[in-house]
Design brief:
The chain has one helix at residues 211-239; strands at 2-4, 16-21, 24-29, 31-33, 37-44, 50-59, 71-74, 81-86, 92-103, 109-121, 124-132, 138-147, 150-159, 163-171, 179-187, 199-206. The chain is mostly beta strands and 245 residues long. A 5-stranded mixed beta sheet has the order 4-10-9-6-7, with no helix packed on it. A 4-stranded antiparallel beta sheet has the order 2-3-5-8, with no helix packed on it.
Length: 245
């Protein structure tokens, strides 16, 4: 079963973007689901004695987004810095501004600014059910969803012995045009079964793909009525007797 819905999601878009300025690079998703929680990593080359990082969110509508206030990290030296972000609860474009201020041992300071754009989109929930009929617990099972032959996303799950488990994935689809979409589900372990074998195909429908035919039918119906009335009126006038004085 597949449902089309908008709500909380914790899976983000799979497309990652990296932007750089000098020794600073930031990496994170370029598209995410509304209300999803995601992160950006900030990497700084080891040329500073210490440095500070500031992150500011901006956009047209930040309803439900966080952090709203600027977030600061100071005196960070080892490894990339992970900054967590919650996407707005509406579809919009989110701009993330990063500023890194590095301090050299001689007291010199350098400032680097990096901006990333993130598209916040509606998502479609893809669901399936998997079964493990074996006597062993299985881990790191990759459940992959393809929509109309194109990769939509995947989820890593663990499943206990002799059990069935529901798997859902929040596909960052945006607003789907009206139509019927075919979804294929694959699993990476042959011991794990889907409802109809190892490749499970089903369909979702967004909107009413036949609405245009409904409109055409309505227009044709009224057109026929008008034509009948015109013809009937014509013959009624033609058959009307002519009175002479």
């Amino acid at each position: 079963m597949i449902a089309l819905m908008v709500g909380s999601a914790f899976t983000v878009g799979s497309f990652a973007a990296t932007n750089s300025s000098g020794p600073v690079s930031v990496t994170g998703p370029s598209s995410v689901a509304i209300n999803s929680t995601f992160n950006y990593s900030v990497s700084v080359q080891h040329i500073f004695s210490n440095y500070s990082i500031a992150m500011i969110l901006s956009g047209y509508n930040l309803t439900g987004a966080s952090p709203i206030s600027p977030e600061y990290r100071t005196d960070i030296r080892a490894g990339p810095t992970i900054l967590n972000v919650t996407a707005p609860s509406v579809a919009t474009t989110l701009y993330l501004f990063f500023q890194v201020v590095g301090n050299m041992p001689d007291g010199a300071r350098y400032t680097y600014n990096v901006t990333s754009k993130v598209l916040v989109k509606q998502f479609t929930v893809l669901k399936t059910s998997i079964k493990n009929p074996s006597q062993f617990s299985l881990s790191s099972i990759n459940v992959t969803f393809n929509v109309d032959g194109k990769y939509a996303g995947s989820k890593i799950v663990n499943i206990s012995a002799n059990s069935t488990q529901n798997v859902s994935y929040e596909w960052v689809s945006g607003v789907l045009p009206a139509g019927i979409y075919t979804v294929n589900v694959y699993v990476s372990n042959s011991l794990v079964k889907l409802q109809n074998g190892n490749i499970y195909t089903f369909q979702i429908q967004s909107g009413n793909p036949f609405v245009i035919y409904i409109y055409i039918g309505i227009i044709a119906f009224f057109g026929i009525i008008i034509a009948v009335l015109i013809i009937a009126s014509y013959y009624a006038r033609k058959r009307r007797p002519k009175w002479k004085k």
